[in-house]
Amino acid sequence: MPEHRDRPAGNRGDSLKSPATMPSEPSAERIPVFDVRLEEAQIEAVAATLRSGWLTMGPRIEQFESEFAAHLGVGHAVAVSSCTAALHLAYLAAGVGPGDEVIVPGITFVASAAAVRYCGAEPVLAEVVGQGDLGLDPEDVEARITPRTKAVCAVHYGGYAAPLAPLRELCERHGLALIEDAAHSPDATLPGGGERKLGGYGQSGTFSFFSNKILSCGEGGLLATDDEEVAELARSRRSHAMTSGTWDRHRGHAMSYDVVALGYNYRLDEPRAALLSARLPGLAADVAERRRITHRYRELLAEVDGVTLPYSAAQVDASSCYVMPVMLAGGGQRDAVRSLLSERHGVQTSVLYPSINEFTAYGAGAEPLPRCERVARTQLTLPLYPHLDERRLLRVVEALRAGIAEAAA
Question: Cβ distance 212 to 348 under 8 Å?
């Protein structure tokens, strides 16, 4: 079956070589940090939507919402234009408004905090557990609760579960809404399992279908919830708070509409929904392969000096393994290693994430977050995708080993 990718990923027919004999010149085949392949049937699902003549929100959105709600084990799924939009709607549904505060981890994509400001509220940045676990630290969260606190955002970093049990207990005790930022976690669970997927334990869970995510369609997001009122608010606000949509009027279910509140243009479209529905059946297999590759990385990296691996093998088995994070021992070494990997070995890497309190827009008046800042200076994200083969994986590990040694010299 033909394969389609967002970018070239080299010659798939290359024979295996020892990592010691891998080319390290800049002209060597580049290994991207992520690589998306689409199957012909998935492309045909989009093409069929284009041929249908109905491109805006309609039956394929409804189909995907039903499928994803069943996949998660929740009552409602509301598809929107991005995870950022989903976070904004989740905060609004939690009653977040001007003068309120939402506690957000310092290590997360900036959208987790920005969406708080969309509500007129202020994000309060909190520490992660540490280099071994990049989830929100419940003790630090509790220390930052004030009378203005309205919600807590638990980010499942890299597809690994945040400490939900203590965070849920804390939120219940203080009367706060728990919002799960599950952008990285479309098929992850709590370690040891659970009755549902991550994103189904808080008042709302939010998901991303951005191009480099595990289940991707280019741009897109979703709000999941068991609360019917939350779902109704999200459905209304995503389309200008109109009482009926274009699809309803097209089918003759409504002749006009009212606007009942301040709404937004947060709609997902039909081609993207069709692609998501076509890709959803393969999600579990993709995640299983990501877990296998992650375990293989961990086996090989355990022998590389200067590398610390966050999380445990049991946590890997529950994770969606969105990224392959490692921590480098030298605080000032990371950027030099990244440059060497790219320029000498053709290996692309990334950083997830800078600490939000160090951004210009969020740093004014922010307290230092030593653990987040240390993570931000030492974390390195290695290539990870389901079709990353053994030859390329070995090359990444050997390149990292060489890069660390050269940077330290």
Answer: no
Nearby residues of 375 by Cβ (< 8 Å), 6 or more positions away:
107, 128, 130, 131, 134, 327, 355
Angle of CA points 268, 272, 274, to nearest 5°: 115
Task: Please confirm whether the linkage preceding 311 is cis (ω < 30° from 0).
Answer: no
Q: How far apart are CA 370 and CA 354, in angstroms?
A: 12
Whether the CB-CB separation of 78 and 233 falls below 8 Å is answered with no
Tokens of 92: 């609004």
| Average pLDDT score over the chain | 91
Helices (H) and strands (E) in the chain, counts: 15, 14
C-alpha–C-alpha distance, residues 338 and 140, integer Å: 31
In degrees and rounded to multiples of 5, residue 273 shows phi and psi of -65, -40
Contact 264, 93 (CB under 8 A): no
Q: What is the pLDDT of residue 312?
A: 97
Determine the Cα–Cα distance for residues 149 and 330; give it in Å rounded to an integer: 37
pLDDT tens-place string over residues 339-357: 999 999 999 999 999 999 9
* Residues with Cβ within 8 Å of residue 120, at least 6 apart in sequence: 97, 98, 99, 100
Tokens for 20? Answer: 């010691």
Q: How far is CA 135 from CA 73, 140, 162, 282, 339, in A?
A: 23, 11, 5, 27, 28
∠ CA 397-402-404, nearest 5°, is: 95
